[in-house]
Amino acid sequence: MTNNLERRTMNYRKITAIFRFELLDKVEHKLQELGVKGLSLSKVKGYGEYADFYAKDWLTNHARIELFLEEKDAEVTAQAIMDAASLDMEGDGIVAILPVEKLYRIRTKNEVKDGEI
Q1: pLDDT > 90 in the chain, percent
Q2: How many structural domains does the chain have?
Q3: Which residues, 6+ apart, have CB-to-CB distance to 109 below 8 Å?
Q4: 31-40, 66-75, 108-117, range with the lowest pLDDT
Q5: 89 located within any domain
Q6: How many CA atoms lie within 13 A of 44 on its CB side?
Q7: Angle at the Cα of 110 (from 106 to 112), degrees rounded to 5?
């Protein structure tokens, strides 16, 4: 009997990367070279390791990319993003890899199965 609290994660991962906006083209090109099939992009503002003390709110502009991919590709993709987005300076950004519990296609309303992305 399985425990109702146990959760099965899919073999997918979500990568969220937040990095300097001016490096967006370089990151996008690197992801295209890797064959990434899709991503979402947002312009975000924030501060963390680096804050713009000359700005009234300390915020700096960054790009945020979110993508879903197979688990086997997550580390290579995260490394590629870090390579493309790094200036080796404070404020270069962060990359997070998260497990995906479920993923649905809105058009079909069906759950995406392992291997379909």
Answers
A1: 71
A2: 1
A3: none
A4: 108-117
A5: yes
A6: 17
A7: 95
Residue type at 81 in one-letter notation: I
Q: Are 8 and 46 in contact (CB under 8 A)?
A: no
Instruction: Please give the torsion angle defined by the CA atoms of residues 16, 17, 22 and 24, in that order, rounded to the nearest 10 degrees.
Output: -60
Is 60 exceeded by the pLDDT of residue 1? no
In a domain, 2, yes or no: no
Backbone angles phi, psi at 69, to 5 degrees: -155, 170
Look up residue 26 and give its two tokens: 């370089």
Strand segments (E) across the chain: 12-20, 40-46, 60-70, 93-99
Give domain status of residue 35, yes or no. yes
Q: How many residues does the chain have?
A: 117
Instruction: Tell me whether residue 107 is in a domain.
Output: no
Structural domain containing residue 69: 12-99
- Residue 30 contacts residue 94 (beta carbons within 8 Å): no
